[in-house]
Amino acid sequence: MKKILLAAALFSILIPVKGQNIITLYPDSAKEQISRHIYGHFAEHLGRCIYEGIWVGPDSPIPNTRGIRNDVVKALRDIKVPNVRWPGGCFADTYHWMDGVGDPSQRKKIVNTNWGGVTEDNSFGTHEFMDLCEQLECEPVICGNIGSGTVQEMADWVEYLTSDAESPMTELRKKNGREKPWKVKYFGIGNETWGCGGNMTVEYYSNQLRKYSNFVKNYGDNVLYKIASGSNDKDYPWTEHLVDQWANKTQGYLKGYMSGISLHYYTICNNWDIKGSATDFSKEEWGNTFFKTKMMDEFVKGHSAVLDKYDPENKIGLIIDEWGNWFEVEPGTNPGFLYQQNTLRDALVASINLDIFNNNCTRVKMANIAQMINVLQSVILTKKEKLVLTPTYYVFKMFTVHHDATLIPSVVKSDNFVIGDNTIPSISGSASVDKDGKVHITVTNADPDMSKEVKIELDGEKSYKFVRGEIITGKELNSLNDFDKSEEVNIKEFKNVKVNGKNIEIKMPSKSVVMIELK
Ligand code: AHR
C-alpha cells in the first residue's frame, strides 16, 4: 500500500482489476497546478475552420464583430478557451505572414497546397487573429514558418507583433492600424518538421531550431515561450536528441531557445488508410478507438520520462499541440477539408485525454485539440448562419472546473471491457481542488454496454459534502448533435451519488462522463 501511496503522490496511476472500480484520492498531497492551457484549441487555415467557421468578413449578413462570428465567439467564451494555436499545422510552414497584413483588397492570393488546393485570399491574417484572441480574451499561440520561411521573416513577425521601439516593422504595424504592440507569449518554431514542416532529420531540425530561435527576440517585457517542433506519438529519440542538445550542448542564457517541446498524437480508429466513419461505426471500432486513445497516457509518460532524465528541474514543458480523433471525412465533403461529425464517442475520447493531461500536469503545460471548428474533432460545427455545439464541446464545458486548479493525485482501480482483441479499462478520471476549496472529480465509463458502480475514497482527515453533479451521455454510441435538430448530447444534472464523509459511491450509465463537486 505504501508503494501505491508513493506512486499516487507523484503521478496518478491506473490499475486494472476484475469487477471493481475504486478511485482513491489523496487531497493532502495536492500540489501541482493543472494549467488552463491544457484546455487549448487549434485553428488552422484548413477547410472551413478559419473561413466560414470564424471569419465571415465585416460585410456578411451573419452577425459579426469586425468580420468574426459573434455566435462562435460567445460559444468559445462560454468554455473559457484559454488559447488558440494558429495558423497551422502544415499550413504554417507555407505561410508568409506579410501576405496577410495591410489593405485586405491588396493582399496576395495563394494556393493552400496542403489542404484541398483552394485559394487562400489572406483576408484573415495577423491583425484578424489577434482580434479573435482579444474577443475571446485568450492567449495567442503562433506557429512560425521554419519549413519554407526565412530566419529574417520569423524575426520580423515577432518584432511586428511585440516591439514598441522605432523600426521598419513597428512602423508597418502602425500604418496597418495597430499603434501598440500585442502581447505574445507562446511561439512555435516550426510544426511537424519531421513531416510536412520540412521532412527534416532531428539533427538538422535541432540546428535550425537553435538558429531561428536565436533571432526571434524578446522585446520590452514580452518574454517568448518558444515551442520546439517535437515528436509524433512514440518517437522518443526525437525528444531525446532535442533535450540532450538543450541540456548538454548549450550554455547559460542561450538555453532560452526552447521552453517547450510539442507532441502530436491523433487517435486513428483503424489505420491511416481506413480511418473509419465518424458516425457509422461498429462495436469493434468503438473498442479500437478507446484502445488507441488510451495510448496517449503511455506516450505522455514516455516523453516525460525522457525529459525528466535531461531536465530534472522540470523547465521544459510538454506541449501536446495536436490531439483528437481523426476519422474519414463526412461523405460528399472535400477530402482536403477534414470535416467530420462528432458523437458521444468523441466526447468520451475528449474526457479521457483531458484526464490524462490533468494527471500528468507536472510536465504537460499545454494541449490543443485539433481542431476548433469544422475540422477533425471540433467543438463547434457551422453551416452558413447555423451553429452546432458538439458532444466534445460539452466535455470542454464540464471540465472548466479543472482550469488552473490543483491536481489531487489519484489511484484508479478499474475493471476491463473486452471487444475483439482489445482489453480496455472501463474507468478513468482525474480530480482537482480549486482556489475556493471545492473538489471536482471527473470520471469516464467507456464501457459501451455496462453501467458501473464506482467507489471514490478520499484519503485524509477531512469529510466532504456533495454539492452538485453533471453527466454527459446519450442513448446510442453514436448519439450526436446536428443542424435543425434538438441536441441529443449535452450536460444534464447527475444525482446518482451517495456521499458518506470520505466515501462516495456513484452509479454511472454505460458510455458516460460525470463530474462531481464536493465541498
Ligand atoms: O490537423 C491537421 C494536420 O495534422 C496538421 O496540419 C498537421 O500538423 C498534422 O499532421
- Average of the residue pLDDT scores: 95
**Which blocks of ≥5 consecutive residues have pLDDT under 50?**
1-11
Bound molecules: alpha-L-arabinofuranose
CATH architecture type of the largest domain: Alpha-Beta Barrel
Span between N and C termini? 27 Å
Helix content: 10-25%
Percent in strands: 25-35%
Structural class: alpha/beta
CATH topology of the largest domain: TIM Barrel
Based on the structure, what is the oligomeric state of the protein chains? single chain
Strands, count: 28
CATH class designation of the largest domain: Alpha Beta
Write down the overall geometry. globular
Q: What's the structural domain tally? A: 2
> Largest beta sheet, briefly?
8 strands, parallel, barrel
Q: Considering the protein shown, what is the CATH homologous superfamily of the largest domain? A: Glycosidases
The total of helices stands at 11
* Rg measurement, Å: 23 Å
Q: Which sequence of strands runs across the widest sheet?
A: 3-6-9-10-11-12-13-14
Q: Describe it for me?
A:
- The protein is an alpha/beta fold.
- It folds into 2 domains: 141 residues, Golgi alpha-mannosidase II (Immunoglobulin-like, Sandwich), CATH 2.60.40.1180; 363 residues, TIM Barrel (Alpha-Beta Barrel).
- The chain contains 11 helices and 28 strands.
- The strands form 7 sheets. It has an 8-stranded parallel β-barrel with strand order 3-6-9-10-11-12-13-14, surrounded by 6 helices.
- The longest helix has 16 residues.
- It is globular, with a radius of gyration of 23 Å.
- 51% of the residues are buried.
